[in-house]
Amino acid sequence: MRAVTTPSLQRRLGLGDAVFIGLGSMIGAGVFAVWAPAADAAGAGLLVGLGIAAIVAFGNATSSAQLAAAHPTSGGTYAYGRAELGPWWGFVAGWGFVIGKTASCAAMALTVAAYVAPAAWERPVAIAAVIVLAAVNWFGITRTATLARVLVVVVLLALAVASASAFADDGSGAWTVPGGVFADGWYGILQSAGLLFFAFAGYARIATMGEEVRDPQRVIPRAIVIAFTIALVVYALVAVAVLAALGPAGAADSDQPLADAAAAWARPVVIAGAAAASLGALLALIAGVSRTTLAMARERDLPRVLAAVHPRWHVPHRAELAVTAAVVLLVALLDLRGAIGFSSFGVLLYYLVANVAAFRQRPPARRYPRVLQIVGAAGCLLLCATLPWQSVVAGVAVVLAGVAYRGVRLWLQRRLTTAA
Question: CATH number of 15-409: 3.40.50.720, 3.10.180.10, 1.20.1420.30, 1.20.1740.10?
Answer without folding.
Answer: 1.20.1740.10
